Amino acid sequence: MPPESQTRxxxxxxxxxxxxxxxxxxxxxxxxxxxxxxEGPLSLDEIAEHLxxxxxxxxxxxxxxxxxxxxxxxxxxxxxxDHYAAEEQIFARAFASHAKLLxxxxxLAANYLESEDxxxxxxxxxxxxxxTEMHRFYELMGEHLGRFLDEWRVERRxxxxxxxxxxxxxxxxxxxxx
Length: 178
Prior knowledge:
- With 178 residues, the chain is mainly alpha-helical.
- 71% of the residues lie in helices and 6% in strands.
- It has 7 helices and 3 strands.
- The two termini are 35 Å apart.
- The model is unreliable at 172-178 (pLDDT under 50).
- It folds into 2 domains: 3-86, Winged helix-like DNA-binding domain superfamily/Winged helix DNA-binding domain (Arc Repressor Mutant, subunit A); 90-173.
- The chain has a 3-stranded antiparallel β-sheet with strand order 1-3-2.
């Protein structure tokens, strides 16, 4: 197998395992890994063929990935098939999606704090403390994650500009920023 093919296959497998560690299906991660690796869009048939799996699960998973904004349908002139590509901002979108899920813990805590304000005082003191702590923890985390995403958008523009030729790509990959 040529080194490029081995690198592609290793990346796809590793990405699948990474998704599995986050509680998602390995196939979902493999689809994302494949679309990140490929320069152009792929049809469902091509994705299934590359990954050596049946088209049915690929179709279901691509629909879910699209709903989460991680991949998008791409029109390919002359083809009547659906083609897919990784979203341009896939990493920021995945992070924002994860942050949104974590933010639901703040909402949960807020609901219990509101019921406390409405006169529900029969709850133990340690529970009220933990809910207050939980609410503030996830509130602060949300503030930090929001600032991180803002900082990432700036960094990504710098990174993209460097890759477009305004800086030496080798310096950029080495972390020198060009």
